[in-house]
Design a protein that fits this description.
Number of domains: 1
Order of helices and strands: HHHEEEEEHEEEEEHHHE
CATH topology: Phosphatase 2c, domain 1
Structural class: alpha+beta
Largest sheet: 4 strands, antiparallel
Helix content: 25-40%
CATH superfamily: PPM-type phosphatase domain
CATH class: Alpha Beta
Number of strands: 11
Distance between the termini: 32 Å
Strand order of the largest sheet: 5-4-10-11
């Protein structure tokens, strides 16, 4: 199912109730991934999405540790939430799961997954949420750039560093390439996906 098809099936309507519509879209996406787990495999994915409404309202949602960072007047602001197992330990335990915290490792759901929310991951789904964090942000003349990226970037660069490193790069695609190359240069060992949006 494409993003367009998911948006078309969303109830309620995105324009009148954006948050509920996005929550429904994330739920639909997760169910489709789980339905196709035989084809896609048992793994899963984090996600971050951003939709610009009427040119002045940004609706951002995420599951896991994929992150959205916006810059206004050169100041970075994180719009998403990193869904870490330690922060959601009680919810995970209430569902019958556990959070491991072994020396030298990060906290993990059932000793396996380093995020508390994700699409897919069928074997962990009983203890794992795909409910997104959703937030709206006003877009004004001070808004310069939006960065959407997976944890491969954020493990080696903080929000302000990322914004600073692309402030003089005018082309959005070139800015995204610069960030991915910088993450590789810093020896990132996680998946690196990055989209940059420049506001005029």
């Amino acid at each position: 199912m494409t993003g367009r098809e998911i948006l078309h099936k969303m109830k309620p309507d995105f324009w009148s109730d954006s948050e509920s519509a996005i929550r429904k879209a994330y739920e639909l996406t997760d169910s489709k991934i789980l339905e196709k787990s035989m084809e896609l495999g048992r793994g899963g994915s984090t996600a971050v999405t951003a939709i610009l409404k009427n040119g002045d309202k940004l609706v951002v949602a995420n599951v896991g540790d994929s992150r959205a960072v916006i810059s206004k007047n050169g100041v970075a602001k994180q719009l998403s939430v990193d869904h870490e197992p330690d922060k959601e330990r009680q919810k995970i335990e209430d569902k019958g799961g556990f959070v491991s915290n072994l020396p030298g490792d990060v906290p993990r759901v059932d000793g396996q997954l380093a995020v508390a929310r994700a699409f897919g991951d069928k074997s962990l789904k009983k203890h794992l949420s795909s409910e997104p964090y959703v937030v709206e942000e006003d877009i004004n003349p001070d808004t310069e750039v939006l960065i959407l990226a997976s944890d491969g970037l954020w493990k080696v660069m903080d929000n302000q560093e990322a914004v600073n490193s692309i402030k003089d790069i005018k082309d959005a695609q070139a800015a995204a390439k610069h960030l991915t190359e910088e993450a590789l240069a810093r020896k990132s060992k996680d998946d690196i996906s990055c989209i940059v949006v420049k506001f005029q």
